Amino acid sequence: MPTGRPLSSPAPVGSTAAELSVQPLLQQPDRLKARLREVPSEPGCYLMRDGEDRILYIGKAKVLRNRVRSYFQSGSGHGHSPRIRLMVRQVCEIEFIVTDSEAEALALEANLIKQNQPHFNVLLKDDKKYPYLCITWSEAYPRIFITRRRRFRSPLDRFYGPYVDVGLLRRTLALVKRVFPLRQRPQPLYRDRTCLNYDIGRCPGVCQEKISPDDYHHTLRQVAMVFQGRNEELLALLQGQMQRYAERLDFESAARVRDQIQGLDTLTADQKMSIGDSSVSRDVLALAADDRVAAVQLFQMRAGKLVGRLGYTADAECLAGVDDRQRGPLLGRILQTVIEEHYSQVEGVEIPPELLVQHTLPQQALIEGWLGELRGRKVKLAVPQRQQKADLIDLVVRNASYELQRAQRASEQNLLATEDLAQLLDLLAAPRRIEGYDISHIQGSDAVASQVVFIDGLPARQHYRKYKIRSAAVRAGHSDDFMSMAEVIRRRFRRWAQAKAEGADLGELRRTAGTALHTAGMNDWPDVVMIDGGKGQLSAVMEALRELNLHEDLVVCSLAKQREEVFLPGAKQPLESEPDQLGVQLLRRLRDEAHRFAVSFHRQQRGERMTRSRLSDIPGLGPKRIRDLLAHFRSIDAIQLASVETLAAAPGLGPALARQVWEYFHPLDPPAADEDAGTDLPMELAS
After folding, report:
1. How far apart are CA 31 and CA 50, in angstroms?
2. pLDDT digits over 90-143, tens only?
3. Residues 630 and 494 in one domain
4. Backbone torsions φ then ψ of 467, nearest 5 degrees
5. DSSP 3-state helix, strand, coil percentages of the chain (rounded to 5)?
6. 3 state SS for 272-289
7. Pseudo-torsion of CA 159, 161, 162, 163, nearest 10°?
8. Domain check: are 13 and 117 in the same one?
9. Do the Cβ atoms of 19 and 83 come closer than 8 Å?
10. Dist CA 485 CA 468 (whole Å)
């Protein structure tokens, strides 16, 4: 089974136990030297990560090795700014993506910084030199404008860029507003009538709602295609306008439109990666392999931009001793396995209309049909042989080759770790899929759980899962880790328990779990389940498995934090083990990753709760009604003190919804009649 990680996942493909250390590289000279030797002397981008796997800095270089080494050379720190010196002291991991040219590295750097927002990047992230174009999709009538800040908008809003030439961006935006009827002002000029822009056709009259929100969104979607590199509609309009100017012998205007077309081409071309057809989204898969392991790279191209990269490792022992003629079909089989594994875990909307693969797949027609069913529309699989698409495959192969070098160095140590774990737990074979679980909360509030997965000793982030604890007994001021862990295990293995109850052979399902095409989703059976905790948590989990009738089918253990002791179900004493032996180190890595993942999810939930208005918890109140209520009453306290009749008089609320709002704030009190229906606020507030 392949394993993989996205661009922002917890651990790099091919990581060993030592490489997952949270200590900075400056404190590990030997590991730092090994990392620097891996960096190629080619153009590309490099990513610096800290001990919690956060991206600290993204940069580009014509020669990656020289640039990355310059950060760590003795005495070089004196030439760096204090900000960079602080960053270097925190670097625990270095990654890189090679490109064909320095120009492509520049475009890729902008895309990666835009997507990840590293803390130590200033330019391209929020600097005045690089503006963005924003479309406020969260509004009924979206605005389109240039901004230099990206952290103050709704998640529904979209940013395009960054653009180096702000003058060219302004001219293009003005051109778009002349070609398409768009709202020209952030606020209406008149309260009860349209302005001149509506009369001359520049604005569809959004201030007086002369156009419906759906029709206006349709127009904005066409405009957005221009800034995504999909500018065919606009170019066709401009070419027609230029032709009409030429027919009228207005050559000055025709030349101006010609320059605008050229400027639009320049503006969008700077944002592309390396392929000219930017109107099609596609995934590109290629691999590099030896006789033991294959490193597969999946590049996600959207509108001509590299927006994500997944790295997989797969077993390649089938390649041992075969000639070149037989090697191609076997490599295609490995690619097909990765495709099945990856796309069975994603939503249908995430599947692009085209996949480029390095080798022909054994069941290519079947895979195309399967992907088409998942997506709901046709998906094309192609093996490019020439021109730009073949060059893109070559680029992915080069990146896969560098990942293969890491995988080769890590494969042997990971194999030793899984074999040591098999010996420790008395298993018949080395475990491939190991799952770890942990609970995170603060005195019962915002309780969540995490499920992390290691395959062949490597993190497989695409299999990570998050759980919100649903039990009413777990709440603020009252925590129960045992109950929470048992709940998560019940939810995780409910499908398998149901299959067993219906007479399915779990052993046969496990044997056929290598393909995602014929298992109806039943391809996630773990070889080992590890619980973060001691005998108490382990007992709660085993009780839940007994309810599911799976207690004799699963191998379960727990890892206690204080002494790094491993417990098995029913045993009073921990297993005889050493904290630094390879099998225990593998469990510790799994435990630490589960803890990190759970804590990050808990912080996210707590932050959302703290920033969310209490009004959001009332059924029937959407964002617009909440804004109208707060604008009318000025505060939540005033809403809480208002009567049902006063609430019903507020804009956007009827009697039924007003009573629902009142009952939310007064769950135990009967509603009283409004003694002064003419007063919008209670007497003490009005005074």
Report:
1. 15
2. 899 999 999 888 767 777 887 787 677 787 775 544 333 456 778 888 888 888
3. no
4. -130, 135
5. 45, 15, 40
6. CCCCCCCCCCEEEEEEEE
7. -130
8. yes
9. no
10. 11
pLDDT tens digits, 190-246: 878 888 878 777 788 888 888 888 888 877 876 776 666 555 656 777 788 788 888
Q: CA-to-CA distance for 598 and 604, rounded, in angstroms?
A: 10
**Of 429, 455, 473, which residue constitutes the final position of a domain?**
429
Q: Which two tokens stand for residue 39?
A: 């960096």
Q: Which of 414, 429, 444 is the last residue of a domain?
A: 429
- Residues spanned by the domain of 359: 278-429
623: left (phi over 0), alpha (psi -120 to 50) or beta: alpha
How many Cβ atoms from other residues are within 10 Å of residue 146's Cβ?
A: 14
Which residues pair with residue 354 across a beta bridge?
Answer: 282, 380
Q: Are residues 585 and 628 in the same domain?
A: no
Residue 559 contacts residue 587 (beta carbons within 8 Å): yes
Percentage of the chain beyond pLDDT 90 is 21
Residue 380, CA distances (Å) to 183, 284, 357, 663 in order: 39, 12, 11, 55
Alpha carbon distance 490, 497 (integer Å)? 9
Spatial distance between the Cα atoms of 634 and 607, rounded to a whole number of angstroms? 24
CB atoms within 10 A of CB 1: 18
Confidence check: pLDDT of 476 > 50: yes
Rounded distance between C-alpha atoms, residue 446 and residue 459, angstroms: 26
The DSSP bridge partners found for residue 285 are 298, 357
CA distance 348 to 512: 23
Cα(682)–Cα(143) distance, integer angstroms = 38
| Model confidence pTM above 0.70 | no
In this structure, are 495 and 571 located in the same domain?
yes
